[in-house]
Design goal:
Layout: E1 14-16, E2 19-21, E3 26-27, E4 41-45, E5 49-53, H1 59-73, H2 84-93, E6 96-100, H3 106-114, E7 124-125, H4 142-158, H5 160-163, H6 171-179, H7 206-222, H8 228-234, H9 243-249, H10 251-257, E8 278-285, E9 288-293, H11 303-306, E10 316-318, E11 322-324, E12 333-338, E13 342-349, E14 354-358, E15 361-366, E16 372-373, E17 384-392, E18 396-398, E19 401-402, E20 407-412, E21 416-420, E22 439-443, E23 446-450, E24 474-477, E25 483-484, E26 487-493, E27 498-504, E28 513-519, E29 524-527, E30 530-536, E31 540-547, E32 554-555, E33 567-573, E34 577-585, E35 590-599, E36 602-608, E37 621-629, E38 632-640
Parallel strand pairs: 5-6, 6-7, 23-25
Antiparallel strand pairs: 1-2, 3-4, 4-5, 8-13, 9-12, 10-11, 14-21, 15-20, 16-19, 17-18, 17-20, 22-23, 22-27, 24-26, 26-31, 27-30, 28-29, 28-31, 32-33, 33-36, 34-35, 34-37, 37-38
Length: 642
């Protein structure tokens, strides 16, 4: 869940029309973007929703839009976005509300011409914003347009079976067909008498009508429409204007709106948003080793106070090696060990913005008081090596977000600063994993890949952090990587007597080859297709691409046959042996001896180019070829065409 982005040094508080808004107007952080260069005012709302406004929009109106967005996202006003999934979706889609002076002005035209994202679903104009009457129909369109954006950009994507907009796609689309008295793809000339939702804008298609329907359902349940003037004014479009009428009329959507699984806002925004910045966070941990960090500003940062159930003497920081510590420092990550899984509750002041200085190489860090998606980390120098942000939960995993109270490894290509929670990071490059379609080994939950070639300049993205302290679990290919080659050593740290290895081989090792996992003690396991094995724990294993050894001698038919002028002869050796292959004509005269050497066991082949032992071409006809390997002798015919 997400905290409000509020400066630790000062708080911008505006009292306008009796509204208190603890959000801050900043300079446009994307003024160099063609789509945003006409905006001068900017508000970051809970690090997942942004407000951009022209200079002509009064500050109190800009803050009203931001406050309404914050209230809809954080309905209980504790500084946390109520639905964590919604937070991540809005953040990843870069949801925003542009505020223009009026419809069709130059700034609006510029934005529409240059914006190519998916985070906008509605816009606001200056005369549509009235902070003195939040959400009141006909006076303040802020609640409607902000809610449209949150619903369209967020809820529709994260709950498609509930809020899908296409016909027959969701609970909501089915409910709307009932509310309109039938399924109308376009606005009908007349709605049936039993309909209570009769949208009449012919420019609005089915999906547009569905998003309007969701708005009516949510704000009706809030009670925003429950006054005689509003009820009369909206009756031509929406009849059940009070919460009581909504509950008795639209039973399906009343159930959806009040279903806690979807965390839709229940309380009507009033334009005031100023949550307390003192917070209580509960941090969970696993048994044994965990990566932890400081999630809040606290008076006493001793690990024995913050994590009273931890094992004494097990708090370690990292700086080119592990160092035993007593207290936690803001921004730094730590190893800490617990005898049992559990949780701890920490009280303190919010950390909303945090800049961390990274050293080249691996850094053990923690974040702020709320989750930060890895794509949203501000990395102006581009020093974070893509794909190398790792958390630990019994084994290393690639992290999608920096969660409060957890520690993470970050690999930096150079010294530099990164910032969490500043709200200005836009479209940081997403790591493109090149292991899709690779063979995988999963050893007690940790994935390793093999059978693919990664360009040398990309291999750093598949490097692994330093090994955990003794007693923790870890597995990796030698060289601290999760990508193996054709012959690679696997290093294992495990406190357990056995390990479980799952494998999925989708890329063949090659003709007459297979993948073999060999333990340090010499036990071999052939890996074919997919499966699972449980083996004794050893410090090292070797994964290699090795030849398949035949079970018997064989001389195969040449290919192609007939041929002109080259053919291939294949043969199998179950053991090492001296081999001769001789070509004869039908009278039994030796034409050419094409193999005469000692060879290892395996599948072999040799080509004959239709020449004799002197290198001269032979005439067309039938020839014999014979193999001798120890006591094994076999002869076959072949036909040369001219």
């Amino acid at each position: 869940m997400k905290k409000m982005n509020m400066s630790l040094f000062f708080l911008a508080m505006l009292l306008q029309a009796q509204n208190e808004v603890c959000l801050e107007i900043e300079q446009n952080p994307n003024a160099d973007d063609d789509a945003f260069d006409c905006f001068t005012k900017y508000v970051n709302v809970l690090d997942c929703f942004e407000v951009y406004a022209e200079s002509s929009i009064p500050d109190y109106k800009v803050l009203h839009v931001a406050a309404v967005a914050a209230e809809l996202l954080d309905n209980d006003e504790d500084g946390v976005v109520d639905d964590e999934a919604l937070f991540y979706e809005l953040q990843s889609m870069q949801a925003l509300m542009p505020v223009f002076s009026y419809d069709g002005n130059a700034c609006m035209d510029n934005f529409m011409d240059n914006y190519d994202g998916d985070g906008v679903s509605a816009v606001l104009w200056r005369n549509e914003i009235d902070p003195s009457q939040p959400g009141h129909w006909g006076d303040d369109a802020t609640v409607e347009e902000v809610l449209h954006t949150i619903n369209h950009v967020g809820h529709v994507s994260i709950y498609p079976n509930v809020f899908g907009l296409a016909p027959n796609s969701s609970i909501m689309s089915d409910a709307m067909d009932i509310a309109r008295g039938g399924q109308f793809i376009q606005v009908p000339n007349n709605y049936p008498e039993e309909a209570w939702y009769h949208y009449d804008d012919y420019t609005c298609d089915y999906e547009c009508m569905a998003i309007e329907y969701l708005y009516w359902c949510i704000v009706t349940d809030m009670g925003i429409l429950d006054d005689p003037q509003t009820c009369a004014g909206i009756a031509n479009e929406w009849e059940p204007c009070s919460p009581e009428l909504f509950e008795s009329t639209d039973i399906i959507m009343h159930g959806v709106v009040n279903n806690s699984s979807y965390t839709l806002p229940q309380l009507a925004p009033d334009g005031n948003y100023c949550p307390d910045d003192v917070l209580e966070l509960t941090i969970t941990y696993n048994s044994d080793w965990n990566l932890v960090g400081l999630p809040l500003q606290v008076d006493g940062a001793s690990y024995t106070i913050l994590f009273p159930e931890s094992i004494e003497g097990t708090l370690y920081s990292f700086d080119d090696g592990y160092t035993l510590e007593i207290s936690l420092i803001q921004g730094e990550g730590y190893w800490l060990r617990f005898a049992n899984a559990g949780s701890t509750t920490i009280d303190g002041t919010l950390i909303n913005t945090l800049t961390i200085s990274l050293n080249e190489g691996w850094n053990l860090i923690t974040g702020i008081s709320s989750p930060v998606a890895v794509e949203s980390i501000s990395d102006p120098g581009g020093i974070i090596v893509s794909g190398t942000i790792y958390g630990y939960s019994s084994s290393y995993y690639n992290a999608d977000a920096i969660e409060p109270g957890k520690g993470y490894w970050i690999n930096a290509s150079a010294d530099g600063d990164v910032t969490f929670g500043d709200g200005v990071a836009r479209s940081r490059p997403v790591f493109e994993d090149m292991t899709a379609g690779a063979n995988t080994l999963t050893i007690d939950g940790q994935d390793l890949c093999f059978g693919i070639d990664i360009p040398a300049d990309k291999m750093m993205s598949y490097s692994l952090p330093p090994k955990p302290p003794p007693g923790a679990f870890d597995v990796r290919f030698s060289g601290d990587t999760r990508i193996g080659g054709k012959n690679s050593e696997i290093e294992v740290m495990s406190p357990y007597e056995t390990i479980t290895i799952s494998y999925d081989v989708v890329l063949d090792a090659g003709e007459y080859m297979h993948w073999v996992l060999t333990s340090e003690s010499g036990d071999e396991y052939i890996l074919e297709e997919d499966g699972e094995i449980t083996v004794p724990t050893e410090d090292t294993f070797t994964l290699a691409r090795v030849p398949v050894i035949p079970i018997a001698y064989a001389l195969h038919q040449n290919y192609p046959n007939p041929f002109n002028p080259i053919t291939t002869l294949r043969y199998d050796l179950p053991v090492d042996n001296h081999v001769t292959i001789i070509i004869y004509d039908l009278s039994g005269r030796e034409v050419n001896r094409i193999v005469n050497a000692s060879q290892p066991a395996g599948h072999h082949s040799v080509m004959w180019n239709s020449t004799n032992s002197f290198g001269k071409p032979v005439s067309a006809g039938v020839y014999l070829y014979q193999i001798r390997a120890g006591d094994f002798v076999q002869t076959r015919k072949m036909v040369l065409l001219k």
